[in-house]
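Two proteins, back to back. First:
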Amino acid sequence: MTPEDLVAAWDGPVARFSETIALSAEEWAEGRDRDDLARWGVGAAVQDDDGRLLLVRQRDQWMLPGGMLEPDETHAAGAAREVEEETGIPVEITGLGAVVEQTFSNPAGETFEFAFAAFTATPEHTELADDPGLDDEAIEAAAWHARLPDDTFQREMVETVTDG
């Protein structure tokens, strides 16, 4: 599915972001070693009744819970699965808030296209897992935030999806 197809499938306005990221030969190789060849990442901005935002801490930054879309999985189902895996909280996807399109390049001129779909969601409950994430994930913490931390990954996108 293309980003355009995904946006067209959802009602309401969807923010679009685009960026090109130059990677060193080493960073490119590390990505290949991890087999990061999936074309879609998915996640969700989950807000509770008090307006708090659910974030996970990974690689020294707070971010929306999310990860790679699995084969034959819808984008919304993948986002819901990722949130529950990373936080222990089942969610209902309520909309598509943003699509971030990224082009990665290396010094040899090779490129790789990637997109991230950020959905909006409501939690079934607010009780966080004691040990967030799967065993092979480097999630340091999961927490509810009354305001967006300064060290939030893709802060502009998160602010847009959560309306500030």
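And the second protein:
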Amino acid sequence: MTKFLVDKAANIPQDHLRNVTLGGKEILIVNQKGRYLALNNICSHAGAELHEGLLENNELVCPWHGAKWNIETGELVWFTQDLENLESYNVIVENDRVFVEI
């Protein structure tokens, strides 16, 4: 695995969905109450960019068709058909800097 620098922790506001490209992958970063999480940013249904969706409590909601995933695990919570879970990535915070391992 490779460790990529995302940004300073202070530059990632709470509950804000942010898209970054790391190692050729589109990654969604979210600061949820001081805990940083990283998931694949592309919907496994129709390819929507999930950072344009909503964060409702612990669920990420797709902006196109409303599919919902658990923000911590990437597991599908709800949709009208089975979809692939979103890949989740390990996040490391060191010296006020946020890194993602891919």
